[in-house]
Design brief:
It is built from 10 helices and no strands. By secondary structure, it is an all-alpha fold. It folds into 2 domains: 3-13 and 30-110 and 192-198, Alpha Horseshoe (Serine Threonine Protein Phosphatase 5, Tetratricopeptide repeat); 115-181, no CATH class. Residues 1-27 are annotated as: Disordered. Residues 1-20 have a biased composition (Basic and acidic residues).
């Protein structure tokens, strides 16, 4: 099986998840998938630093989509000067509940190229599929309104909303919405990362 076929099999498996990932995953989703991700390689004799960083970011992202937080972290730490690596790094810390560290890495990632698509999709989801006025009042609803109405994606706003949710200050009705937004964010960032690693 070629590396591209193997990558497609991995991404298809990740996309087959019926339920969105937990905001704070407690265990690896598919242990067998972790081994497949580890064996993935697009290194060629003509590979250069940008390709290597893209491949490292890809493994960080694939592991994170498999709820393998430790493995994802080990890869994102290798490319701390890379915007995509920093973005994956931030999401990893958000999932483990280290929210201030997550926001630090989102700041390091800067205006990532995936964020325009994330904002469009999330805003559309919040406008068409969610009646925000029916959600319980509180920090999460306020954050969701801010995300819906924003012109640019700010991962820090989502992080603050998730922090409020996970600290038990919000109703469970908002958890489903946050999980779907995280799913959109992960999907767009993974699509960007796959393209960067395989072009």
């Amino acid at each position: 099986m070629s590396n591209h076929e193997q990558l497609k099999r991995i991404t298809d498996r990740i996309q087959s998840r019926q339920e969105p990932q937990k905001l704070s995953p407690a265990s690896v989703w598919d242990p067998a998938l972790s081994a497949e991700i580890e064996s993935l390689s697009f290194t060629t004799p003509t590979a250069h630093a940008a390709v290597d960083k893209a491949m490292i970011a890809l493994k960080a992202g694939l592991h994170l989509c498999n709820d393998s937080l430790d493995e994802s972290h080990s890869y994102s730490q290798e490319i701390e000067d890379d915007s995509t690596g920093s973005y994956w790094h931030g999401i990893m810390h958000r999932m483990e509940g280290d929210y201030s560290n997550a926001n630090y890495w989102f700041h390091r990632a800067g205006a990532h190229l995936s964020q325009a698509n994330i904002q469009v999709r999330v805003s559309d989801y919040l406008r068409t599929d969610v009646d925000l006025e029916k959600l319980p009042q509180g920090a999460v609803r306020e954050a969701l309104q801010a995300i819906r109405d924003a012109q640019v994606w700010r991962a820090q706003v989502l992080t603050d909303a998730i922090a409020a949710q996970e600290r038990g200050r919000e109703q469970e009705e908002t958890r489903t919405v946050l999980e779907m937004i995280q799913r959109i964010e992960l999907s767009e960032l993974l699509a960007f990362t796959v393209t960067a690693a395989t072009k």
